[in-house]
Amino acid sequence: MTWLIGKFAETAAYGFAVIVLMMVYEVVARYGFGAPTFWAHEIAGLLGAVAFLLGGAYCMIDGSHMRVTALTDRMPAGLKWMADGLALICGAVYLAALTFSGWQIAERSLFRFMPDGSWFPERSGSSWNTPLPAFVKFALFLGAVLFLAVVLQQLVAWLRQGRSSSEPDRAPR
């Protein structure tokens, strides 16, 4: 599972390089030739949003997510173990709710049909009027599902670890 999330996130991370190239192109086209693009900002928004949404699960796997450990570093091992578990449980509850609501939002946005049966997803309303907002909302759902899977995996590992195998108590610094 973690390799799949890693591949998704690494692929999405290339979106940042594409954003840089598109913005360079946009600046040159706009200020160098007086011919701005109508698509660069929408695509950049989509790529950035997808990369950030998929990046959360990857950072959790990699251990590179931000943690404020000023209090937990000073706790005895047993209390630290309980605090870690509480954080994982709270994260799982939050991500489960985000997954549920993310699906509802994505479903209303992506699976829209006209009376004649033709597909008509939510559109941006810009001059290009693309269905990109619908895909960003689906990416929110997908990112929440993947992040929830990682948190549940770590919660199971936390339960298996148990308090008995926690780190020894450390004196506060």
Automatic annotation (TrEMBL):
Q: Which branch of life, at top level?
A: Bacteria
- Tell me the Pfam families matching this sequence: DctQ
Query: What residue intervals traverse the membrane?
Result: 12-33, 39-61, 81-106, 138-159
Q: Which residues form the Tripartite ATP-independent periplasmic transporters DctQ component domain?
A: 19-160
Its primary localisation, in coarse terms, equals: membrane
Q: Which UniProt keywords apply?
A: Cell inner membrane, Cell membrane, Membrane, Transmembrane, Transmembrane helix, Transport
Query: What is this entry's stated membrane topology?
Result: Multi-pass membrane protein
**Could you tell me where this protein is found in the cell?**
Cell inner membrane
- Tell me the subunit arrangement: The complex comprises the extracytoplasmic solute receptor protein and the two transmembrane proteins.
What's the family?
A: Belongs to the TRAP transporter small permease family.
Q: What does this protein do?
A: Part of the tripartite ATP-independent periplasmic (TRAP) transport system.
What's this protein's name?
TRAP transporter small permease protein
Species the sequence originates in: Roseobacter sinensis
